[in-house]
């Protein structure tokens, strides 16, 4: 199953070879329904996203702002399960051939079973996992099973991370490094700011992994701004908000496809 993480690595390398940042979209599984969520992921990829992170909805998403919390709540009330997350990955990957990761808090994996989760994610064609609340020093069991199944382990770094801590985190990760552009929760912001550029610079000093920036990017201009200094631009809340505000599911999917196209143009334009 080593082809899963290789596809992610090749996709990020191809974007770099084109002289641009990769566009990474985030969408939660099961929102507004399981089928609707799959349609949205496919729309983001068809619209121009290079990679998608599929969120595993959680009842206490401490790093997520109100937009993603609302979507997670809708998905959970709809009865979404880990099997539905795997189905989302499987169907979106099969339809597009593009890399799909799962973004999840640690508790659901721990309860489900690390070996079971990694085996099923690899079987579904998943490229890896982003684990925002798993401390690197407690990640050995996860990384053992992820490596066995050819899955990337993406850790999150923040502006508050000291240089020695950055080196520890990036040494343990694979695929790419998720650089949180600012302290706080997910959500769109007026400006992504200089903090993110400094964090990318400091992170790159510790690793050859691509450094992708998330939290706060919502439009093509911001995508271009971040693409000027990062290897990837991660957009989540802006997609989810379009779906929350849409009059119906079809309109939401169309809006996701359109925004993905705008953002894809933004990462190619750069600031």
Automatic annotation (TrEMBL):
Pathway: Amino-acid biosynthesis; L-tryptophan biosynthesis; L-tryptophan from chorismate: step 5/5. Keywords: Amino-acid biosynthesis, Aromatic amino acid biosynthesis, Lyase, Tryptophan biosynthesis. The active site is at residues 53, 64. It is an enzyme of class 4 (lyase). Pfam families: Trp_syntA. It catalyses: (1S,2R)-1-C-(indol-3-yl)glycerol 3-phosphate + L-serine = D-glyceraldehyde 3-phosphate + L-tryptophan + H2O. InterPro entries: Aldolase_TIM, RibuloseP-bd_barrel, Trp_synthase_alpha_AS, Trp_synthase_suA. It comes from the Bacteria. GO terms for cellular component: cytosol. Belongs to the TrpA family. The alpha subunit is responsible for the aldol cleavage of indoleglycerol phosphate to indole and glyceraldehyde 3-phosphate. NCBIfam families: trpA. Tetramer of two alpha and two beta chains. This is Tryptophan synthase alpha chain. It comes from Streptomyces sp. SID14436.
